[in-house]
């Protein structure tokens, strides 16, 4: 079982920045593919960014050039740096971990990001 815990959400003005953190338990964090998703009210959950075990990243078109996903294997943590935030980025942001060689995905409880003036 892998425990996933997000933090760092909050209220920010349009154009501002936030950094989300996601800590995942386990001794083989470097073997987890990690991803951030988000879900806005009344909408389906959508993929925001992915980082593979090898550090390859991929982003949703809506956040390319504004968001950056990174990982620190020594700290068992993945980050989502969000810049130039827009009101449409308002959502609950979820982190997940998928150990290599498995189809099991472990989700966190989510952290609220609200972009509003």
Explain what the structure shows.
The protein is mostly beta strands. The chain has strands at residues 4-7, 10-12, 18-24, 32-39, 46-51, 57-59, 67-72, 77-82, 91-99, 106-107, 111-115. The strands form 2 sheets. Strands 2, 4, 5, 6, 9, 10 and 11 form a 7-stranded mixed sheet that branches. It has a 4-stranded antiparallel sheet with strand order 1-3-8-7, with no helix packed on it. The mean pLDDT is 96.
Mass-distribution shape: globular
What is the number of helices?
0
Structural class: mainly beta
Chain-averaged pLDDT: 96
Biggest β-sheet strands, sense, barrel: 7 strands, mixed
Oligomerization state:
single chain
Return Rg in Å: 13 Å
Q: State the end-to-end CA separation.
A: 40 Å
Helix content: under 10%
Q: What is the H/E order?
A: EEEEEEEEEEE
The strand count comes to 11
Strand content: over 45%
Low-confidence stretches: none
